[in-house]
Amino acid sequence: MTNRTAKTNIKTRTQSDSDVAQEANADLIATNTPAPQKFYDFYLAEHQNMACRRLHFAGSSFGLLGLAKSIKNRSFRPVLKGIAAGYACAWVGHFFFEKNKPASFKFPLKSFASDFRMYGDVLRGKLSLKDTKFDKIKMK
Q: Maximum distance among all alpha carbons in the chain?
């Protein structure tokens, strides 16, 4: 085998190895990203402690108040303060009460959306801030 043929074989093998790696990564990403309802079920399972759930509700309220104040005052600072207060409340709830890591560390956008979905479910009476036995949403 000539030197040129060996280099071509190595280059082809490297390209095919990288193709295999990309396909494996695509499969890994596809299997580790839960569907929206499954993710929300996972999200609710991570929020069974009432103190954690209440802190999330308070934090989301701070975020919405910051957004409203930002719009009213035409300033970006209140929304930043609201977001910081919201995440601080949520993380305290997870680290001290729920004793788990926030889902926002692995799935920031889905967690953000699920937090407001949970907020809406509390406002509509589907989720309780008193006890999980009063929840009208049953996880699958």
A: 76
